[in-house]
Design goal:
The chain is an alpha+beta fold. It has four domains: 65 residues, no CATH class; 92 residues, conserved putative lor/sdh protein from methanococcus maripaludis s2 fold; 93 residues, Efflux pump adaptor protein, beta barrel domain (Elongation Factor Tu (Ef-tu), domain 3, Beta Barrel); 76 residues, Helix Hairpins, CATH 1.10.287. Helix content is 35%, strand content 29%.
């Protein structure tokens, strides 16, 4: 035992002896007994001294346990995003815009009188001819009106015949001075009234017959039924559409053009039209109509082009791509298309990417680019020359080999670290 341990032991024995000597009845006990009690009391005194430090010991134990329960915080893992590496298409596309194939004239067909539809003989998609009956109303009421008008006309015709006979007789008697002048004037007045009543009854009869004829809905042009708006048994009002008829003949392609493409366009300009549903087919079209003002919602101008030689395969409602010929496209794109082409060549070509990747930065189109080895997102503005049903064509703002986010473009933020993931079905994102 070292010196410090012996000192502590001596102090403990002296404290134990003092504790024993302080008790009156033990102080009168023999010395040997008091010494034994002192040795017995020393461990108890040690425990008592340690009890005074119990709160501090408990606090240290709790701190130790709390320290053992803590685990170091780990940084959140980057979120996965579906992305793809882009490569140039290899050519610079001409300026083209989407459109829709439609008939030059489309009119709603409706009855000219009220009634209940009792028969429909045309269905959606049927080809109809001029004069063909398409639907009928219940004619009972109109038959009665026509019969009443016929009876009124017959009565007026009988009164006219009587008035005519009286007028001829009185005229002859007046020439022979057999009747007074006043009687002749009365006969003339009755005759004129009978003529007017006959003419009125005749017009009423014609109107009733027309209304009875209007209970049949007749096609006034050849064409195709493109919509059905009423069914058998339905009560319809005069002028309420029952069918939609697309006239046969000229076929148009309607397209909405931006302001930078409408400036140099004129009536009669030619364009090339392609239909995605008919690969390899090309149609020549001419501009037939230009809207005088922009649409208030889209701020685009409606342009209608007529196909010069349409065929039966170009069906109404098909989507189309309209590419203006050089005589119009070069002028309208003097400040836009040429610059976009040069910029596309400077950036390394054009890129066709899925339309789901398109986002916006203010009013400009933009894409999310995965930058660098740490995969940080950057929102970059791009120039888009063409919008298709599933893809867009980017002419400026992309470079070969860059990675573009394809899905979830509305859920990511600039500067966010991500983990690029290839599309599960790459064929869904094919051009």
């Amino acid at each position: 035992m070292n010196r410090r341990g012996r000192g502590a032991s001596s102090r403990m024995r002296s404290q134990s002896s003092g504790f024993v000597e302080s008790i009156p009845f033990i102080r009168r006990a023999p010395k040997a007994l008091r010494r034994g009690l002192a040795h017995l009391v020393s461990p108890v005194a040690l425990l008592a001294s340690l009890a005074s430090f119990a709160p501090l010991i408990a606090l240290c134990a709790l701190a130790g346990l709390a320290a053992c329960g803590k685990t170091p915080e780990t940084a959140p893992s980057p979120r996965p995003v579906v992305s793809m590496t882009v490569h140039p298409d290899g050519n610079v596309p001409s300026a083209s815009w989407p459109g829709t194939v439609q008939a030059r004239y489309t009119t709603p067909l409706s009855f000219r009188v009220n009634g209940k539809i009792v028969e429909r003989s045309a269905r959606l998609g049927d080809t109809v001819k001029p004069g063909q009956v398409l639907a009928r109303l219940d004619p009972a009421d109109y038959d009665k009106n026509a019969a009443s008008a016929q009876a009124q006309y017959d009565a007026a015709q009988h009164r006219f015949a009587f008035a005519k006979q009286q007028f001829d007789r009185d005229t002859a008697q007046a020439q022979a001075d057999l009747i007074a002048r006043a009687q002749l004037e009365q006969t003339q007045d009755a005759y004129a009234s009978a003529v007017a009543q006959r003419d009125q009854a005749k017009q009423q009869l014609a109107l009733a017959q027309d209304q009875r004829r209007y209970t049949q809905l007749v096609a006034d042009h050849a064409g195709v039924i493109t919509a059905e708006n009423a069914d058998t048994g339905q009560n319809v009002q005069a002028g309420q559409p029952v069918y939609q008829l697309a006239w046969a003949g000229d076929v148009d392609v309607a397209s909405d053009l931006p302001e930078n493409a409408i400036g140099a366009l004129h009536i009669g300009d030619t364009a090339q039209v392609t239909l995605p549903a008919l690969p390899g087919r090309h149609y020549t079209a001419r501009v037939r109509e230009l809207a005088a003002a922009a649409d208030p919602q889209s701020r685009t101008w409606r342009v209608k082009l007529t196909l010069e030689q349409p065929d039966a395969d170009a069906r109404l409602g098909m989507t189309a791509n309209v590419a203006l010929m050089a005589n119009a496209a070069s002028a309208s794109s003097a400040t836009n298309g040429t610059n976009a082409t040069n910029a596309a060549q400077a950036d390394g070509g054009t890129f066709t990417i899925p339309a789901t990747a398109l986002f916006h930065d203010g009013n400009a189109p933009a894409l999310w680019i995965v930058q660098g080895a740490d995969n940080v997102l950057q929102l970059r503005r791009v120039s888009v020359s063409r919008y298709d049903a599933r893809t867009i064509t980017v002419t400026q703002g992309l470079k070969d080999g860059e990675r573009v986010v394809l899905q979830g473009v509305h859920t990511v933020t600039a500067g966010e670290k991500v983990r690029p993931v290839a599309p599960l079905h790459p064929e869904d994102f094919a051009s």
